[in-house]
Amino acid sequence: MPSLEEQLFPSTPGKFKIDRSSHHHAMNRQFHRCFSSTSTMFLWALFLIALTASYLSFQSFVDSGSKYFTASWGGVQWEKQVRNSAQIHRGGGMSVLVTGAAGFVGSHVSLALKKRGDGVVGIDNFNHYYDPSLKKARRSMLAEHGIFVVAGDINDGKLLAKLFDVVGFTHVMHLAAQAGVRYAMENPNSYIHSNIAGLVTLLEICKSAETQPAVVWASSSSVYGLNEKSPFSESDRTDQPASLYAATKKAGEEITHTYNHIYGLSITGLRFFTVYGPWGRPDMAYFSFTKNILQGKPITVYRGKNRVDLARDFTYIDDVVKGCLGSLDTAGRSTGSGGKKTGPAPYRIFNLGNTSPVTVPTLVSILERHLKVKAKKKVVEMPGNGDVPFTHANISSARREFGYRPTTDLQTGLKKFVKWYLAYYGHNHGKAVN
């Protein structure tokens, strides 16, 4: 009989077969056309603003004496833990540094990599954006599988340099970020610090490595912003962000393109579409709806203009993990060494979605059926906080490049989430669930 952990964590996908056709050349041409079609003035302005903001954010963060830079690391025992975690246990395997490893997507990707024999070392700052006890529980789960998660911040260049000194990482899976569209209105600086300054710090370490790793990182479907074309394709315009979060992710795409062009870093950006599932983020609607429905509290359901229901391309975590592993498996090599480029390197961007948008009221109805509790709904007009009325992914590029095919519909995925939620928190109808 499978253990509780095996029941709660989704199954591990296998390695994708690499398509050795000439398609990746077409992909490169496509993205060069995409970038050149956007206003040059906008891109340079965005890039300069991003670099300025990252510098100011980094300086203020260092000056503040943040606890993340005083975290304990280093020493013989620490290095031994890092090396043991990074050991590869399969032929042709990779050693991967996963940032944000104690997060939702990061923990699932780390476990999937480890289970198939890759070496994995994680890093996470365990911030308080949501209850850190959930992150600590994920870290404990990973530790049971031999995955060491370093408590540290990606803005700590000395820590990152030390990790690269101890392990010659072949790949970096960069999933650390300040998430959430609405929170940006409360704490905008955290988005600059994590999503821009942290990204630049990580890329600086990667490009300076003697053998540069291939970098796969989490962008977001939010970069499509006010785009009204459906479904969203990678070649669509992304110069109208609707939130600061979206703007930082768009800036990240420009910054990574620069490091690819100048230093030869192999870059793959993944535009995630509303990821959900077991061990998810408590700030996400499906998670908070579940909590409030069980506690008998009202939930707020937003509507767009003209009373149109909001819709999202909800993508189950198992499917996203498949896309992450597929992108790692097909990532071409970086071509630089010690900050010097020797030739062109791959630059790719992919949508990872489910291709089947579902309205929020339908999401609520599915949760009601699985929880066997009727929701108390408060329907209000969507505020101007950066949210968009709908998302819809075109995944044809990811399908061609590494066989990405999502297989979990919302009904099935939410059933698995509810099973995990009740097992983790219990049937807690009357008490607050933190």
From TrEMBL:
UniProt key word Plastid: no
Enzyme Commission identifier(s): 5.1.3.6
Pfam families in alphabetical order: Epimerase
Residue intervals passing through the bilayer: 41-58
KW Transmembrane helix (keyword) present: yes
Membrane topology of this protein: Multi-pass membrane protein
SUBUNIT field: Homodimer.
Family, per entry: Belongs to the NAD(P)-dependent epimerase/dehydratase family.
Protein name in UniProt: UDP-glucuronate 4-epimerase
Organism: Linum tenue
